[in-house]
């Protein structure tokens, strides 16, 4: 059992890996119908003739799915609180893909004005079952310091 | 009735505004229960004692909700296809907030290798009913050129 993580625990290079979880066509279509209703995300037949050449998850679905995997595998004290991020989708997420997230601490920045907290920069790569990168996320997260 | 937009139509400074749409507590809790199950997104009472000091939407929910507003208000030919983005959340989205998205074309980049397409850089600010910025998104989108 790992305890909760504070800024002092999150040294540069520390690595976290989530379990793998499958994303199915039904979920892709349901998410997109609500948030990103475009044929390449909602209609397998119509998707064939598009940029994606087949059904693909909304990038925001891949992002939300990644968040779910992060919440289960990165036990930061106070929770996962993002201030901002850079995100890219080097390749589409397809129905049946099994995704996992590998995260690495890239920077640790104590706050100058708030001695009780800081930020980390975290690289989170969302990989599919072929170890191909479906999403690259570099996020800044607010992290509390251990009480001294 | 506006026609579909091609790269040639998307000049720097061109502006698009979505209709306003309300985000309710039920939707905030449902989204977070599936994708971002942390107390400040799922439990109004427990949220009081957290960083957010009350229920707040997951940032990924604000992002997905923004996408829904963009899909309805930015008729790019071929659809809205993001290659990547920078995203930040200057303030939380709260239950009952009425959000709208104001987007401005910041750059237009014809592809050197593919004469049939290009990219735009689009700033999309998600504003609440008090004109406060809940999300700032700068995205790169793939846009087709008009056939000549």
TrEMBL record, chains A, B:
Residues 12-112 form the MaoC-like domain. Coiled coil: none annotated. It comes from the Bacteria. This is Acyl dehydratase. The lineage of its organism: Bacteria, Pseudomonadati, Pseudomonadota, Alphaproteobacteria, Rhodobacterales.
């Amino acid at each position: 059992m790992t305890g909760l993580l504070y800024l002092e625990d999150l040294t540069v290079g520390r690595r976290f890996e989530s379990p793998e979880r499958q994303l199915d066509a039904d979920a892709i279509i349901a998410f997109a119908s609500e948030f990103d209703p475009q044929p390449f995300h909602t209609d397998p037949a119509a998707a064939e003739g598009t940029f994606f050449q087949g059904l693909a998850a909304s990038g925001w679905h891949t992002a939300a799915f990644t968040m779910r995997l992060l919440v289960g595998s990165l036990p930061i004290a106070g929770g996962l609180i993002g201030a901002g991020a850079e995100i890219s989708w080097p390749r589409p997420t397809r129905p049946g893909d099994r995704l996992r997230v590998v995260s690495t601490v890239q920077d640790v920045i104590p706050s100058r004005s708030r001695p009780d907290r800081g930020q980390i920069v975290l690289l989170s790569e969302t990989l599919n079952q072929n170890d191909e990168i479906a999403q690259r996320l570099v996020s800044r997260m607010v992290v509390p310091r251990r009480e001294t």
